[in-house]
Each structure stands twice: as structure tokens, then as C-alpha cells.
Design the sequence.
């Protein structure tokens, strides 16, 4: 049952990276849609100053975090066939804010905006720099062979700048996909990136770049004057960090991380997980873990092709990062304070500091004993998982619907291993 009355969440173990609180027993009081109090043991008198009635939630044994933020999802189902309903697949799993990563370009942005207004989940947007966004490119039911960069003039610099200026509360950045197959066999990739960087400079907001099967290298070379992340600016985002295809982050000559990834990190270029249907290789994640390099944002890239596996939901993707050794506090940061800061919303969401929106997620770290697949069906035995227990969005409690995973359907397992042949980094034992 939805409820907007004041709520005391007590006895939980609080993780609030934005205020440097990690693993401390604290109470949180939600009032009038905001975090009103955060303290060691809130007593009745403190609450009575604010209101005469409230409900209580005992979070004993659970982690109490700011409402989870998923930096990369696709939630425009009315115009793209890959879109999922965030009120079904995100909010009931503890995700209070999602950032739609380029489902809409300027052609459909009005409709996208109307759609977001009908949803309980807070939706923010990265505007696709190509006019049709992801309504094409194998992401919709119309002509699957046409990618969004087939016609370079679809990347309309002035049109994007105007659209960003007209939607300052909804648009938090821009999105570009770089893959040869969606850009006239690679012919349009460099010009698309050039234009996207021009837009980025004019709007002053982060550019998120998908970079796989691309003709553009990681670092500029004699043949390519641009690279990804080599030519991205501080604050920009390279997504699908752990994909194992061509243009992945592993240097093939050393088997270690490509130096451009560490260089980008030093310059302030963010790495986004973007699990997706093809963007998470256990092998690449483990190579990165060995060098203690983690994603700045843990995101699902949730869409219809991965919501029933292999991504499932944000808690499951967090579970995978914990499994490869990412420290618990860093996992929480990557779904709260860090994505909030990356999109410039750190004073409104992603924290439990008084005055911030009353978005709170309660999670339980449970013992688990399951084989969990990556995006090409490589398996790892996971021993613990994040289970969503309770969630409040702007102070209103929303019912949790915990996901059943992994998917054990035999046809699904056949489908998920289909791209194995395209991997350039993978487990040796599956060769
Ligand atoms: Zn995506």
C-alpha cells in the first residue's frame, strides 16, 4: 500500500557515501517527502517537533541506503520496442531514479517527456545526439537494418543544443553509440563523435559513449584523430565497461587493462558498467578487479532483451560486482552518490542528508548459492546477493517485487551463449 505519511526507519546499518557514513547504525526520519533527520538513535521528542504521527520500519539486520540510481536504462516503451516500464522493473526492486540512456533523440523527445510524467519512478534523460534515438537500429520493430548513424545529418548539433536548453530539469547529458554496424559500416563514426563532442562543449553536460565493435580506437592513432576514452572530456562517461568484444578495455598484448582506461580515469572520464545484453564479461570484470579498477557507476542498461536475464535488475548486477571483489561500500557508492554526482544532481538525490528527497532503499545481503551467467553465458558461483527489502520514493513507500533469477529456461541459455564466437576476451576453459 502506498503511503506518504512520515516514516521512521530505525535500527538499520546505514551507508550514505555522500555524508561519509559507512556501516553505522542510525535512524532515518522521512517527513513531507524529504529526509528530515538522520541520527544515532532518534527519540520521540525529536520527531514530535515535526509531526504527531508516523509509521515505523524496523531495518534491523539490513543496509539502509539512499534510493538506488541506475545510470543506464531504456524506459521508453511507447516508442522503442526495447523499452521497459521502470515502475515494474526498477522501482519495485529498490531503484528510485533511472537515467534513460538515449532512447529518445530530438524527433521523439516531446513524447518521451509526456511518458516520464506518467511514471512514479524518477526518470532523467541522456538525449540521443541522433534525431531518431533508439527508435531504429534493431531496437524497434521497424527496419532492423537501419542504424541511428546511417545518415550523418541525423546528428543535428543546433537541434540537440536547443532541446537540452528547453528541458533543463529532465536532460542531464547526451548519448552516442559508436559501433560500425549502425554507422554506415563505420564510415560515419568519426564525424558522429566529432559532432557529439561539439554538442557536449556547447551544452556543458556529460556525454555518454557506447563503444563496441567500433572503428574508433581507445586512443587516437594516425588513422583516427579521435579515441574513446582518449578524446572524452572530464565528466564524460564511457559505458559497457566490461564488454569482451572488439574495442574492450583489455590490452591484447599484455592481458592487462589498456593504459587509456587508467589515463581516462585520471582525467575524470567516468566508467559506467552498462551490463546490458552484451556488456558484461566475467573475464573482463576479473581482469579489471585484479588491477583494483572499478566502475564509477554500476548500471543495468536494462531493456527487454536482458530484463529476464542476463542483467535481471540492479540488485543482481550489484551482486555480480560484489562477487568479483568490489568492496561493499564502493558498490553502494556506485549506485547512489557517484551517479548522482556524475549527472549533477548530488544535492537532490543519492544521499540521506537532511533536506534531500526522501528516496530510501533497504537491502539485505543474503547468503546465496547460485550459478550466475554473464552476457555470453560464462558462469560463476555466487555466494551472496543483494535482496531488496523496502523502498520509499519521495517519502512514499512502494511495494517490493523481488526478482526470481537466474533464468533456467534451456532456450534462454542457448540464446545467451550465441555471441560467444564474437568475444575477444573470454574464459579459456570454454574455448
Ligand atoms: Zn543502453
Sequence:
Amino acid at each position: 500500500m502506498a503511503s506518504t505519511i512520515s516514516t521512521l526507519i530505525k535500527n538499520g546499518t546505514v551507508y550514505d557515501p555522500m555524508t561519509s557514513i559507512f556501516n553505522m547504525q542510525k535512524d532515518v526520519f522521512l517527513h513531507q517527502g524529504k529526509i528530515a533527520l538522520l541520527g544515532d538513535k532518534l527519540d520521540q521528542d525529536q520527531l514530535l517537533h515535526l509531526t504527531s504521527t508516523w509509521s515505523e520500519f524496523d531495518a534491523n539486520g539490513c543496509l539502509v541506503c539512499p534510493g538506488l540510481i541506475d545510470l543506464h536504462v531504456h524506459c521508453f516503451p511507447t516508442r522503442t520496442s526495447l523499452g521497459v516500464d521502470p515502475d515494474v522493473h526498477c522501482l519495485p526492486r529498490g531503484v528510485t531514479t533511472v537515467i534513460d540512456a538515449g532512447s529518445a533523440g530530438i524527433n521523439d523527445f516531446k513524447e518521451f517527456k509526456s511518458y516520464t510524467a506518467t511514471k512514479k519512478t524518477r526518470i532523467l534523460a541522456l538525449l540521443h545526439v541522433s534525431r531518431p534515438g533508439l527508435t531504429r537500429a534493431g531496437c524497434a520493430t521497424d527496419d532492423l537494418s537501419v542504424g541511428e548513424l546511417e545518415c550523418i545529418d541525423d546528428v543535428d548539433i543546433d537541434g540537440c543544443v536547443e532541446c537540452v536548453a528547453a528541458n533543463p530539469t529532465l536532460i542531464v547529458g547526451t548519448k552516442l553509440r559508436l559501433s560500425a554496424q549502425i554507422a554506415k559500416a563505420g564510415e560515419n563514426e568519426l564525424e558522429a563523435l566529432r559532432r557529439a563532442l561539439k554538442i557536449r562543449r556547447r551544452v556543458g553536460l556529460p556525454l555518454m559513449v557506447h563503444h563496441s565493435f567500433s572503428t574508433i580506437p581507445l586512443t587516437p592513432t594516425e588513422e583516427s584523430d579521435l579515441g574513446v576514452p582518449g578524446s572524452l572530456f572530464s565528466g564524460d562517461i564511457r559505458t559497457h565497461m566490461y564488454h569482451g568484444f572488439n574495442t574492450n578495455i583489455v590490452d591484447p598484448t599484455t592481458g592487462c587493462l589498456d593504459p587509456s582506461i587508467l589515463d581516462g580515469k585520471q582525467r575524470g572520464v567516468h566508467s559506467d558498467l552498462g551490463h546490458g545484453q552484451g556488456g558484461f564479461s566475467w573475464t573482463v570484470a576479473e581482469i579489471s578487479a585484479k588491477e583494483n579498477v572499478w566502475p564509477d557507476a554500476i548500471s543495468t542498461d536494462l531493456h527487454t532483451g536482458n530484463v529476464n536475464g542476463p542483467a535481471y535488475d540492479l540488485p543482481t548486477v550489484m551482486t555480480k560486482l560484489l562477487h568479483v571483489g568490489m568492496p561493499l561500500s564502493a558498490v553502494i557508492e556506485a549506485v547512489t552518490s557517484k551517479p548522482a554526482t556524475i549527472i549533477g544532481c548530488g544535492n537532490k538525490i543519492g544521499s540521506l542528508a537532511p533536506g534531500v528527497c526522501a528516496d530510501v532503499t533497504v537491502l539485505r545481503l543474503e547468503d546465496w548459492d547460485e550459478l550466475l551467467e554473464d552476457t555470453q553465458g560464462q558462469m560463476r558461483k555466487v555466494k551472496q546477493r543483494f535482496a531488496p527489502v523496502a523502498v520509499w520514493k519521495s517519502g512514499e513507500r512502494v511495494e517490493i517485487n523481488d526478482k526470481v533469477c537466474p533464468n533456467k529456461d534451456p532456450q534462454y541459455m542457448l540464446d545467451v551463449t550465441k555471441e560467444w564466437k564474437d568475444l575477444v576476451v573470454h574464459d579459456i576453459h570454454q574455448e
Notes: The first strand starts at residue 7 and ends at 16. The two ends are 51 Å apart (CA to CA). Residues 72, 74, 101, 276, 301 surround zinc ion (CB under 6 Å). The mean pLDDT is 94.
